[in-house]
C-alpha cells in the first residue's frame, strides 16, 4: 500500500489580514521574485531574503570580479612567457599577483554564495 506524501495543501492555511494596497505591494514583490504569493510569503516567514529572479547588483559585482580575475590572469601569463616587458618582475611581484588572484577568487565565491544562499538572520 502506497502512502501519500504530505503536501502543504493538506494543512490549514495561515490567514493574513491586510489592506488592499498592502496586498498589492506583497503581490508585486512576489511577482518580482518570480514566486507565487504563497511561496513568497512562506519564504519570507521562514527568514529567507527573497530577491528578484536574478539580483542584478550581485550579477554586476560578479562580472566586475571576473574581469579583475581576467586581468590578473593576463599579467601572470605575460610574466610566464618571459616577455621583455616583465623581465624586471621578481618573485615578490609574482607572489603578490598570485595572492591578489586568490583574494579575488574568494571575493567571487562570497558573492556567489549570497546569490545561491540568500538566507538572512531574522531580526525579531
Commentary on this structure:
The chain has 4 helices and no strands. 59% of the residues lie in helices and 0% in strands. Helix 1 packs across helix 2 and helix 3 (56-80) packs antiparallel against helix 4 (91-116). The mean pLDDT is 80. The chain is elongated and about 75 Å long. By secondary structure, the chain is mostly helical.
- The N- and C-terminal alpha carbons lie at a distance of 45 Å
**Can you write the helix and strand succession as a string?**
HHHH
Contiguous helical run count: 4
Note poorly predicted spans: none
As a percent range, the share of strand residues is under 5%
Q: How would you describe the shape?
A: elongated
Q: Round the Cα radius of gyration to an integer and report it.
A: 24 Å
Mean pLDDT, to the nearest integer, reads 80
Give descriptors for this structure.
124 residues; mainly alpha; 4 helices
Can you lay out the helices and strands and say which pair or pack?
Blueprint lengths: L19 H13 L4 H9 L10 H25 L10 H26 L8
Provide a compact summary of the structure:
This protein has 124 residues and is an all-alpha fold.
